[in-house]
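Lay summary. Proteins are chains of building blocks that fold into shapes, and those shapes determine what they do. In this project we predict the shape from the chain. Here is one chain we studied, written as its sequence of building blocks.
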Amino acid sequence: MEQLGWVDYLFLYCMVCIWIMLLINIVLTAGGYRYYLKTLRMRVDEPLDEYPTVSVLVPAHNEEKVIGQTVEALMELDYPKDKLEIIVINDNSSDDTGAILDQLRRSRPDVNLRILTTDKETGGKGKSGALNNGYAVSTGEVLAVYDADNTPERSALRILIHTLWRDQRLGAVIGKFRTRNGSKNWLTRFINIETLGFQWMVQAGRWELFGLCTIPGTNFVVRRSIIEEMGGWDTKAIAEDTEISFRIYRLGYRIRYMPLSVTWEQEPETVPVWMKQRSRWVKGNIYVLLKNIPLLFSPEAKQIRFDLIYFCSVYFLFLSSALLSDAIFVLGILGLIEYNIVGNTLLLWLMAYLVFVLEMALALSMEKGQSRPRNIALVAVMYFTYCQLWLVVALQGAYQFIRDSILRREARWYKTERF
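And here is the predicted shape, written in a compact code that computers can read:
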């Protein structure tokens, strides 16, 4: 038997990290499937004795392409009109967002639509800042948040409120988001599969097994009293959804995933736009993890310990191991390095590939019409394409975080191009 060198041990380390994450995701997928079976028996239509007042906050910065459709969908929400106010924060926009909103307000005097317009002095500091501005003028007992490209189904808000108001242990409830332009091209098809897999594996699985899930940034409700206690959104956080989730858990509340509440959102249709958006997510989540890592062994972190370990493993161990293993594999093929576990390498790669496809296929089976053969074939392809792009995004996001931390750059809008 040939003696193993440092490259062999490094590769084995990478394989161990990758397989640990694969096994964790297998468990989460099983938990997600169990929760899916429970949702088939859920009844969320029974009305409340009294409905709370709700303020819907919509941060909007140069959203002329999508804001009209979003506000029209919000106006049609199946929720008592006398208990609902819609606040669109037109945050330092330079396009026709404001004109479109004014026209909508005039056309529907029966709806309590409020438009909060800010400029570069009073706004323009990113989504967290816009949400704080909207929250400051809101009156609802519950705050709901929708992104400017979202078209929620009529029942979406009502289902979230029914779930939240019947359980005082809940600080927030999140719904499901679906891809509105999922059939546009290969990229949006991959994104559609990714988002469904994430929600049924990571969100539903963590809720079922650990009573945990993470606010996705849209289609969620949170008690006003909690936002008051926390002092609003962290304006330094780009990933404000993950950041606020951790603080809600640290206060002792739970966040529930309710997939029967559905909103439809527009996804990036070109690779450069997708990479810009995803690298921002990586950068924002690194900030949140580093902010909360000191709490890992603190009693205060009891509720978030699993999430801290899980997301640290994803961003720092899994992604780095995937990068290293890919590099070793390519350099070995090119003959630039030598390692002695070639046969085992092929077997480990094949098994990891099969597990990935099976996990995603099971996740897609929980969504009506998504487990068709074409989507399973797309899963098989995305492992070698879309998933590998995520490695580039991870490097780009980490670089941006380090650069902006050194330069002490202020948070600002990271605009996702609309189509």
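What the prediction tells us: The CA atoms of residues 208 and 242 lie 19 Å apart.
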